[in-house]
Amino acid sequence: MKILLISPTSGGIGGIAQHVDGLSQFLTGLGHEVDIISSANT
């Protein structure tokens, strides 16, 4: 399944960024294709 995660921040330190990264890794481990879009690159 292709999944798109949308986050206000990406990478770095922060609760949302860490949660989205962890969720992405978990879903990828289950065999899904995951993309992340964010409004800020850090």
Description:
By secondary structure, this protein is an alpha+beta fold. The chain has a domain at about 5-35. About 35% of the residues lie in helices and about 30% in strands. A two-stranded parallel ribbon has the order 1-2. α1 links the parallel β1 and β2. The longest helix is centred in the middle third of the chain and has 15 residues, at about 15-30. The termini are far apart.
Q: How is the secondary structure organized here?
A:
Elements: E1 2-7, H1 15-29, E2 33-38
Mean pLDDT: 88
- Taking all Cα atoms into account, the compactness measure Rg is 10 Å
Compute the separation of the termini in Å: 28 Å
Percentage of residues in DSSP E strands = 25-35%
Q: What is the makeup of the main sheet?
A: 2 strands, parallel
What class do helices, strands and sheet pairing give?
alpha+beta
As laid out across the biggest beta sheet, the strand order is 1-2
DSSP helical segment count: 1
Instruction: Give the proportion of residues in helices.
Output: 25-40%
Order of helices and strands: EHE
Low-confidence stretches: none
Short description:
This protein has 42 residues and is of the alpha+beta class.
Task: Provide the descriptors you would attach to this structure in a database record.
42 residues; 2 strands; two-stranded parallel sheet; alpha+beta; 36% helix; 1 helix
